[in-house]
């Protein structure tokens, strides 16, 4: 895979971005005065309570929607709409059911007129990296949920986008599969080092993956805190939470998220109640 670590492309900058929907009684402010920078070669992970506005922010960066005010630029260019420089993987991304693993992965380059033969080596490299060698000729319905996600990762990476945005891509997978996914994804990231922006509500996932952790406030969302996660790579799930460093960051992040949840709990939001539930479970364990 092309080494992009020395190319400073894919620098995303949000300045005072606000986004609201509806009018009158239906008016809802989702993002308020949010400023944020996502730098190339750094795995930025955004964490925030569910319903705070993360996916809305992703849709703005992807160019699917426009902010009401503020600016979003990539390498200084304003985002006017979707672009080939950005690739977004949503939780509900789906493979083409009528194509094999290999054909699904080769789809992107083929769609822009490239010959399969040109990309087969890269496809094989990625198939190997995501552990799907035995499943190259299988169709999506012959793959487990985790394998399908791995196939989606490879399908996105073959396009070598400057910016990869992943919105809770592993949500809904069982714990063990999810942990495997983290290792595959971290491994792929270590290989490609493009600008990666990963969104999650899972604190362990966030710390295992992140170089930089961006913690969001409750709705209307903006950045509450940014924490650098200077834990060396490759990381191992088997021991990362034995490190004081990882646990200190985890406690610090949870404290901020908890404060945010409490604020919205006092205002009666359901998402906050859910978060507090999850938080208590983690602290108890
Ligand atoms: N098109 C829309 N119209 C009205 N409200 C919206 C729209 N899109 C998102 N919202 C509201 O924005 C809030 C944040 O949603 P979302 O960005 O999906 O949160 P998250 O991804 O953090 O869980 C939700 O309360 C949702 O109802
Ligand atoms: Mg979301």
Could you characterize what this model shows?
There is one protein chain. With 285 residues, the chain is an alpha/beta fold. It folds into 2 domains: 12-85 and 164-284, Rossmann fold (3-Layer(aba) Sandwich); 97-160, no CATH class. It contains 10 helices and 10 strands. The strands form 2 sheets. A 6-stranded mixed beta sheet has the order 6-7-8-3-9-10, sandwiched between helices. It has a 4-stranded antiparallel beta sheet with strand order 2-1-4-5, covered by helices on one side. A hairpin with a 6-residue loop joins β9 and β10 (223-228). It is globular, with a radius of gyration of 19 Å. Adenosine-5'-diphosphate is lined by residues 21-22, 28, 30, 48, 50-56, 219.
List the helices and strands and how they pair.
Layout: E1 12-21, E2 28-38, E3 43-47, H1 54-62, E4 69-74, E5 77-78, E6 86-90, H2 101-105, H3 107-111, H4 116-129, H5 145-157, E7 163-167, H6 175-192, E8 195-200, H7 203-209, E9 212-216, E10 223-228, H8 237-240, H9 244-266, H10 270-284
Parallel strand pairs: 3-8, 3-9, 6-7, 7-8
Antiparallel strand pairs: 1-2, 1-4, 4-5, 9-10
Helix pairs in contact: 4-5, 5-6, 7-9, 9-10
The chain binds adenosine-5'-diphosphate (ADP) and magnesium ion.
Residues 54-55, 167-168 line the site of magnesium ion.
């Amino acid at each position: 895979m092309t080494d992009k670590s020395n190319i400073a492309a894919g620098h995303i900058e949000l300045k005072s971005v606000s986004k609201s929907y509806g009018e009158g009684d239906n008016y809802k402010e989702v993002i308020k005065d949010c400023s944020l920078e996502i730098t190339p070669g750094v795995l930025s992970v955004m964490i925030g309570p569910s319903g705070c506005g993360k996916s809305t922010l992703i849709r703005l960066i992807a160019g699917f929607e426009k902010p009401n005010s503020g600016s979003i630029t990539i390498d200084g260019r304003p985002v006017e709409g979707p672009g080939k420089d950005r690739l977004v993987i949503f939780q509900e991304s789906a493979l083409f059911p009528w194509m094999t693993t290999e054909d699904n992965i080769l789809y992107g380059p083929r769609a822009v007129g490239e010959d399969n033969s040109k990309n087969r080596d890269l496809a094989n490299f990625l198939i190997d990296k995501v552990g799907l060698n035995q499943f190259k000729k299988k169709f999506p319905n012959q793959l487990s949920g985790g394998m399908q996600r791995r196939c989606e990762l490879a399908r996105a990476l073959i396009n070598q986008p400057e910016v990869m945005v992943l919105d809770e891509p592993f949500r809904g997978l069982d714990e063990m599969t999810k942990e495997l996914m983290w290792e595959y994804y971290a491994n792929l990231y270590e290989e490609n080092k493009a600008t990666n922006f990963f969104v999650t509500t899972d604190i362990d996932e966030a710390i295992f993956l992140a170089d930089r952790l961006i913690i969001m406030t409750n709705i209307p969302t903006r950045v509450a805190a940014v924490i650098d996660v200077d834990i060396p790579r490759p990381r191992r799930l088997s021991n990362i939470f034995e490190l004081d460093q990882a646990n200190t960051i985890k406690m610090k992040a949870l404290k901020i998220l908890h404060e945010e949840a409490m604020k919205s709990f006092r205002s009666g939001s359901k998402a906050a109640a859910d978060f507090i539930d999850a938080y208590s479970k983690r602290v108890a364990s």
